[in-house]
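Hi everyone, sorry if this is the wrong subforum. Our group has a chain we'd like a structural model of before ordering constructs, and none of us has done structure prediction before. Sequence below.
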Amino acid sequence: MTTYTATRPLDGNADEYFAYIADPENLPAYFPHMVSARSQPDGTVETTARVDTDRDGEEETVTSDARFDADYAAREIRWSAPGPNDYSGSLRLDDDTAHLTIDTTEDIPGIQLALEDSLAAIAENLRKKA
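Answer:
Right subforum, don't worry. Here is the predicted structure as tokens:
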């Protein structure tokens, strides 16, 4: 299992940040390649993304149901998606720092930059809302 991590200082109120990231409908606004995310009645989130799954240089549209759990007391969301790569992750907020972690069995080119870009997008989106 490979773990990728990124951290970023929080420039605002951690509870406001968490309210934003805990809403799965906001996922496409800060995760690269995600096109849509819709909460399902069974507690999963249907996600659609454009990714190069077969590494041929062309992005394919991939739709799947993922677990998405928000723990408000811990200010942490955890998710996992079924599939051959055991993809899962978490985004946890302390009072002054955001911690993003992705676990997968596959080496994913560019994922470190994508994690850092996601945290930057969250911060920018929240700054615009303020």
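For your construct planning: Strands lie at 2-9, 34-39, 44-51, 60-71, 76-81, 87-93, 97-104. The chain is about 25% helix and 40% strand.
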